[in-house]
Amino acid sequence: MTETTSGSARSSRSKDGNAEKAEKAVKTTRTAKPGKGLRIERIHTTPGTHPYDEVVWERRDVVMTNWRDGSVNFEQRGVEFPDFWSVNAVNIVTSKYFRGAVGSASRENSLKQLIDRVVKTYRAAGEEHGYFASPADAEIFEHELAYALLHQIFSFNSPVWFNVGTAQPQQVSACFILSVDDSMDSILDWYKEEGMIFKGGSGAGLNLSRIRSSKELLSSGGNASGPVSFMRGADASAGTIKSGGATRRAAKMVVLDVDHPDVEAFIETKVKEEEKIRALRDAGFDMDLGGEDITSVQYQNANNSVRVNDEFMKAVENGEKFGLRARLTGEVIEEVDAKSLFRKLAEAAWACADPGIQYDDVINHWHTSPESGRITASNPCSEYMHLDNSSCNLASLNLMKFLRDDDQGNQSFDAERFAKVVELVITAMDISICFADFPTQKIGETTRAFRQLGIGYANLGALLMATGHAYDSDGGRALAGAITSLMTGTSYRRSAELAAVVGPYDGYARNADAHKRVMKQHADANAVATRMDDLDTPVWAAATEAWQDVIRLGEKNGFRNAQASVLAPTGTIGLMMDCDTTGVEPDLALVKFKKLVGGGSMQIVNNTVPKALKRLGYQPEQVEAIVAHIAEHGNVIDAPVLKPQHYEVFDCAMGERAISPMGHVRMMAAAQPFLSGAISKTVNMPESATVEEIEEIYFEGWKLGLKALAIYRDNCKVGQPLSAKKKEEEKKAGQPAAPAEVEKVVEYRPVRKRLPKGRPGLTTSFTVGGAEGYMTANSYPDDGLGEVFLKMSKQGSTLAGMMDAFSIAVSVGLQYGVPLETYVSKFTNMRFEPAGLTDDPDVRMAQSIVDYIFRRLALDFLPFETRSALGIHSAEERQRHLDTGSYEPEGEDVDVEGLAQSAPRQVEPPKQSPARGTQDAAEQPSPRLAHNSTELLEIQQGLNADAPLCFSCGTKMRRAGSCYVCEGCGSTSGCS
């Protein structure tokens, strides 16, 4: 088949020698014979139509500023994107991934150019290396890959978008593992190799356990320095490179084995530095995150992990002694109490969140290539674990794209289409190793020999909520396990098919028995996994079939890849795909921050919430009432008509109903048996958590078969900003007040603006729970609502009198300048009788007469953006949301002029009336502004998100796995 669409960007490639051979080859299926090429199946595309021609494109202006000083960080106008891409996704892709000097003619200005640059490179390499049965299959591959990227179904990791198809080295891997031996040459090579990887914006990890301890002798007779001392030099190097102007910090992981004689010093490195931070802060130095003086603190640029083995964990369990061994001879040079050492590990994690823990025997039990070396380390975020001096390129699928709703409102996960997309993505990822460049020769050699891949997913938390599953539930874990098993099983099946076409990985022959053993372990875990409901059972069935094919085809063909899957943080690429949640994480909060075209912003209730309520059986009127409650309170506690047993479905990572730490651990355990690598995730713990609870988490992680685990206790870092609640508590506890030199306060008194004699009005009759009434709303000719009259019951009755008084009070407030939005936010969701069904199609159910009145006023007098943020929509808008997933009017530009004037959205408690304001100005705190979902949550909940500030735009970052990502500009602290 040849391409029929016009345009040079979509012209067919001329056939080279390999493509001509592939065209003559017999087209094959899953039982392909060596050298015959893959037959590529269509998933989403239509023959004769290019995916670009099936969407509506529009031009947008991208202007990104630093909110601290108002400076413009980035500007590019007239960029071209599909109309369904969010403002945030457009901003991040334009600023991060478009290549070429800004302002030059060579600068990319369309998503088409970006996707073509990558996809056409992959197709050309696939044809050159004999991956496709014919040019027609190569074209289908190109179109399907372009469609999936265009529609945000999956994304490659950032280095692919940075480098592929450009003149610079085509590095496709984000994750690297280095090695260091017990020699000065090797240690200096480590510094250099790590620095080059940091320079390229990626991260690296390594194990220092080969270096002699400070308790051992050198050949010259003196004591060795020990690995902790050499960590100091590497940390300084990473800090220097980080501060050299890059938009992301250097990411690194340092691992030390639990039997290393210097393990206690390693555990205590960061604890001692935290004590130093406290002392310097008390002396007046700037020790906040990003502060001028924080650079004097050591060991802060790495994640530290202790590698424990089963021998040690059993010694902890039984209260036994454990031997620390010399590095060169392996003899025990010191015995320690295992429980005491484990306690020190937990105490350090309690004090400063480091070190994490890695379970050595579990990791190597699932190792497909043990004959080529043990797995000793991981990448910085702990999801990639394989041989030393190797790398892994990542890609992640957007799980929400595979959730189906039928006409009857039933949900299902499209396992068949999911498997087909996994096959497509794995094929592309393996092709990339054929042309990829690597930072060192050793890494290139190992990666080409073992071809490690890291397919994963994002939006699991959103998927579970949308399907009515609590994150910490058997049903949620069953669905997560089924999807993970299907993903990895399908990946290895495609890897076996690729082995039949282009051969197994070079190291396979030596490791064949071990690789096949690990495949059987995955299949066995799949067979005994618990099936829970109608959503996960079909996915388990598809996974079972995939693993059966893996065993059969692997025995015949071998495997193309030594590993296939990991669960990465999906920071920047998660934002690129407009995902609500990253990696395996739950939702951060139920209300998030949305950027609008034109520069404005608004807070909205996550779209997964209405889906979840529908799945749980709530009617549209009930859904609207619950969503309105969430919009106002940020949580579901006491939401109208919501059953308490359904609260857990809406539990989030932070807030009033935060998921328990063990809930996070159990979710990791549900996915781990079905992953080649590990999971990037940090278990958040409350500030009140004890050392014993951390010990329990680390011990249960071992019992449940995890490969790695890290915890973070709220407010354990000295350098992190205090939460709003803590600041208030400190002020009440007698903290020093502001200086006495305060400017004289001029009392402000509002002026009443009366309506003219002739004013436009709107009279509405209504019925709430059987009670009838009339409302007359009069407005200024050009400036909104000015007065309200309510008539209910007979003249002279108590109810009629109270309604008259209430009407006068509201009307006078409106004329003195109280915004209608304030009244609406305060009086909607008030509950008292009469309540129930109404005769208004836009407000089908009301919690009270007052609730109905202000919902009706909002619909009649507030702009769409304002009332949408409050969860108030008309019947037409609700139907549009069910049909299209959007409340916004079709074919209309959203009026954000007013919002843009005050963007970013100011979120603060309702202010006291100015007429009553006699409080001293020095006591009135400046209103805090929210610039993203993390800061919005902090303001709503009065808590701290435990995240650093973005180096690029200054906003609070949000956690993504073991790393952090900035929602505003896409910068990350890790390697995804």
Give short descriptive properties of this protein.
ten-stranded mixed β-sheet; nucleotide-binding; disulfide bond; globular; 25 strands; alpha/beta; Anaerobic Ribonucleotide-triphosphate Reductase Large Chain; Vitamin B12-dependent ribonucleotide reductase; three-stranded antiparallel β-sheet; RNR_NrdJ/NrdZ; 976 residues
Quick recap of the structure?
Keywords: Cobalamin, Cobalt, Disulfide bond, DNA synthesis, Nucleotide-binding, Oxidoreductase. The protein is of the alpha/beta class.
Description:
The protein is α/β, with parallel strands linked by helices and 976 residues long. Among the domains are: 1-151, no CATH class; 175-215 and 224-372, Anaerobic Ribonucleotide-triphosphate Reductase Large Chain (Alpha-Beta Barrel); 765-861, no CATH class. It is built from 30 helices and 25 strands. The strands form eight sheets. Strands 3, 4, 5, 6, 7, 10, 11, 14, 17 and 18 form a ten-stranded mixed β-sheet that branches. It has a three-stranded antiparallel β-sheet with strand order 19-20-21. It has a two-stranded antiparallel sheet with strand order 1-2. α3 runs antiparallel to α4 (135-150), α3 crosses α12 (415-435) and α15 packs antiparallel against α16 (508-528). The chain is globular, with a radius of gyration of 30 Å. The chain starts with 16 loop residues before the first helix and ends in an 11-residue tail after the last strand.
